[in-house]
Amino acid sequence: MPAASPPSSIPLAQPSYPRDMRLARRIAVSDPASTKGSPAEWLLSGDASRAGPVELLDGLMTRLFAAGMPFERATIHLGTLHPQVLGFTAVWDHSRGSCSEFRVDAHIRETDDFRLSPLKPVIEGHETVRLDPRNPETASRYPMMAELSADGMTDYCAFAIPHARSFHCAMTVATRRDGGLESGSMQALQLLLPMLALNLDIIALTRIAENVLTAYVGERSGARVLAGEIKRGSGEMIDAIVWVSDMRDYTGLSDRLAGEDLIRLLNAYFERLVEAVQSYGGEVLKFIGDGMLAVFPIGPNMPASTAASAALNAARAAFRAVDALNGKQGDALAIDTSWRPLKMGIALHRGPVFYGNIGAADRLDFTVTGPAVNLAARVEPLCKETLRRLLLTEAVGALLTEPLEPLGSFDFRGVAHPVALFTAPN
Binning pLDDT at 50, 70 and 90, where does residue 9 land? Predict the structure, then answer.
């Protein structure tokens, strides 16, 4: 076994991490006695990259530790392609018996946590950084070293993984061994880096595919596409609450605002709507100019009455968020104030929709379609006529227990019978 400090009999508290690093999941460190195969055999097995970065890192470091190498802490930093996420970090900690995965927000690049981290020159300049955490000068320059020193670490090394084609891959290792990390252990690890890089590329490409699909088609739709539902016409009929929303006077805004200002305003507007829908379990499917289509699927995990309440609460949350944008929040946009106030309408309708792939042979859209979507789209413009910013069809109103204000029945092209509309306090 390695010449290193044994794990304490008293459970160690988890170290602190920057607020821009959010814990995604945590697994227990594997028992070295139960691991099979050498580190190289593990990296060349199909299992190494199948589950994710924590399993990959744990499998590698546990085998190295079992082989007598004094690595007691290791991290892997894996970049990704996502508008809000810089990448993922896996932290293997032998003494604490855990291997954790963190989602790293893109904002971290603007913080001292990154600027004063030894990883900055590694990620940005592909440098290798070797430090003694016990050195006061080192701790003064890199604050995280003080925590590693308090944890008993005697040596720390951070380096890029040069063979990885994915975004800014890096690794760190640390030990409590007297004398630090020995050259033989570091050389053994360096020889494994090309194999590690191949596994990281597989994981990175999978994560990028997930992130891109989630960003462009939504979490549920993205998962279904990755699961293989890519044939035109594939999909299913589902029962859902359909949300159709539209911004008022978008044409006028387009005339008054410069292009960049209009885009900034639209982004702020849609950000608030999307957050409202997703926070109540809905899924945004597409943006059409200033309009938005979303669904609240009805099923075992969300009965019809629950979905209707969720859609109504999401609409209320969206109105509050846009009202706040019309107030002081809008000042942060720093654009021509002639856009104020933003107004919008939301229509909610319940009905069966086809949820799946629609389009041409080589250009598909994963969305919903059907008479229920058409009716919701025709109800929404009546927000202007009825002077209400929220309209519910009778199919939604019948699912709600709170009092609603009836607005009468309306005829719609292609619909055999008049449709009763309601509104609710918002």
Answer: very low
> How many Cα atoms occupy the beta-carbon half-sphere of 328 within 13 Å?
0
Residue 357: is its pLDDT beyond 90? no
Bridge partners of 242, per DSSP, are 295, 349
Q: Are 129 and 159 in contact (CB under 8 A)?
A: yes
Query: Does 374 or 35 have the greater pLDDT score?
Result: 374
Confidence of residue 17 (pLDDT cuts 50, 70, 90): confident
To the question of pTM greater than 0.85 for the whole model, the response is no
Of 312, 327, 347, the closest CA to residue 426 belongs to 312
Q: CA dist 115 to 92, 111, 144, 148, 419, Å? A: 23, 6, 12, 18, 59
The tens digit of pLDDT for each residue in 377-415 reads 999 999 999 999 999 999 999 999 999 999 999 999 889
